Amino acid sequence: MFGPIIAKPGSSRKNKTGSWRIESKPKFLQSNCIACKLCILICPEGCIEGSQKNTFHCDFDYCKGCGNCASICPKQDIVMVKQE
Q: Which residue range is the domain that position 64 belongs to?
């Protein structure tokens, strides 16, 4: 039997991949947030953090701009904005 293959983390923290981001990025409005943390769970890059209730932010050094966080937010408190 084979178990799950888990690789030890390498240099992923050094490889900032945010430059691969598409045309938009998430903006956390922080006005209607209910702190459900669905945005954290769905982020494929794991780059969304929350320091306090209703205070979530994204590390743009790693964000690809996929929009999953904005799509899943039940309060539409995350919007995708055009990249500067």
A: 28-82
